[in-house]
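Teaching note: in complex prediction, the entire set of molecules is handled at once rather than each chain in isolation. The prompt given to students was simply: 'Predict the structure of this complex.' The entities are:
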Amino acid sequence: MNKEQKNEKQISSAVIRRLPRYFRYLRELIRNNIMRISSKDLAERMNVTASLIRQDLNCFGGFGQQGYGYNVKYLYNEISNILGVDKNFSAIIIGMGNLGRALANNPLFEKRNVKIKGLFDVSPNVIGNKVGDLTVMDMNDVSTFCRDNKIDIAVLTLPKLEAPSAAKLLAKAGVRGFWNFSNMELELPEYDVKIENIHLGDTLMTLCYELAKEDNRASEDKE
Amino acid sequence: MNKEQKNEKQISSAVIRRLPRYFRYLRELIRNNIMRISSKDLAERMNVTASLIRQDLNCFGGFGQQGYGYNVKYLYNEISNILGVDKNFSAIIIGMGNLGRALANNPLFEKRNVKIKGLFDVSPNVIGNKVGDLTVMDMNDVSTFCRDNKIDIAVLTLPKLEAPSAAKLLAKAGVRGFWNFSNMELELPEYDVKIENIHLGDTLMTLCYELAKEDNRASEDKE
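The expected output is the structure of the full assembly:
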C-alpha cells in the first residue's frame, strides 16, 4: 500500500473511538516489556472479542501473523501516528478554576504528546499565579499568544455562557481544535475547526441508570 | 402498558448512552419555558435527525402528538426516572487531588440529584481540610462511613495502583457503583457492582486524530 492509499482508507468513527483504548493497552504492554501478543490474549485483557480486535486492527494494516501474533511496538506506533501523537500538537487551557487547574497538572497531555503552552483566565486574582510550571496569563492577550505560538488546541474550562465568544476569538487566532468542558455544546460552522464537547455528567447518569434498573428489578421481585 | 411491562422493556445501550444528552436539552428547554417541541425542532437543536429522536423517544413511550409535538416536561420526567434522578443516590469522592477537588465543587452532581456525602483521602496533610461544605475524612474510616450512610456511588480519583484495593474495600462496604477516574480500568467480577471507567485522554486523542487527518490531507495536496 502506498502512503496515499493508506491515508485515504476510511476508518469508521466507531473504530477511531476505540483506538485510544488500544493505545492505552499497547502502551501498558510495552511498559511491561511484552513485545508480541495474540488477538486472543489482547482480547482477554481488554474484555472484548478477539474477532473485534482483528477487525479493528486490520483497518489500518495491523495484520497479526499466525502463530506469532501482533508486534506490539509496530501496532503502538501505527495507532500513535493515526491519532496524531507524532504531530506534537500545542494547547492552551482557558479558565483556571478547579477543573482547569486539575487538567493543567494532569499527565494525560504529556502521555499523548500534547504540549500545554499557556494558561489563561479573566480574573485579576488568578492572572499571574503559578500553576505547575506555567504562569496564568490575561485572557486579553490570548489572540496574540495563539498566533505567535501556533496553538492547535484550546481546552475550554470557562463558564458556559462565555464559551461561544471565547471559542470564536480563538478560532480567529488560528486554534483548530476545541476540547470543550464548558457544558455548552459548541458549534462553530463558520470556522474550520474540530470540537470535542465533553459532558462529564453524562457518564455519571449512565451509571445511575444501571443502579436504578437494579433497584427497580429488586422492588418488582418483592411485589 | 403496566408498570412491569414498561420496566421489562429492553432499551438498547446505544439509546441509554444518548439519554443524558436528551436530559440536558430538555432541562434547558424547561429553563427557557419551552413546554412543547416537535421532533423536527428538537432535532435541529441537537444536531441529529428527527427520525433518530422519534425512534429513541418511542423506546420508552415518549410518543409525540401530530401537530402538537412532545410534552417537554413529561419527557424530561420520564428520562429522569429512567436515569435514576428520582432515586437520590448518595456518593463519596476518594482522592482529594486536583481532580477530586474539581469534582467536589462541581454542580454536576446536584443537577442529577446525586448527593456528595463524604470526601476521603489518605494524606494527613489533606485530612481535616475543608472542600466546599465538607471536611476531608481519613480513608481508614471509609468502610464504616459507607455502611452507616448507605453510600451508593464512589467517585475514584485516587492513583491508579491504589484503585483496585480501594474499590474492593468499598464494594464490601456496600458501594454499588464506581465512577472511576483513576485511569485503571476496574473490573470487579466477584462483586455485584456497576463501573464506569472514565479516560479523559481518550477524547483528547480523537480530537488529535481529526487534526492529524487534516494535516495529512494538506501535506498530500502539496505533494
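Point out the following to students. The beta strands of chain B are 36-37, 70-71, 90-94, 115-121, 130-131, 134-138, 153-156, 177-180, 194-197. DSSP finds ten helices and nine strands in chain B.
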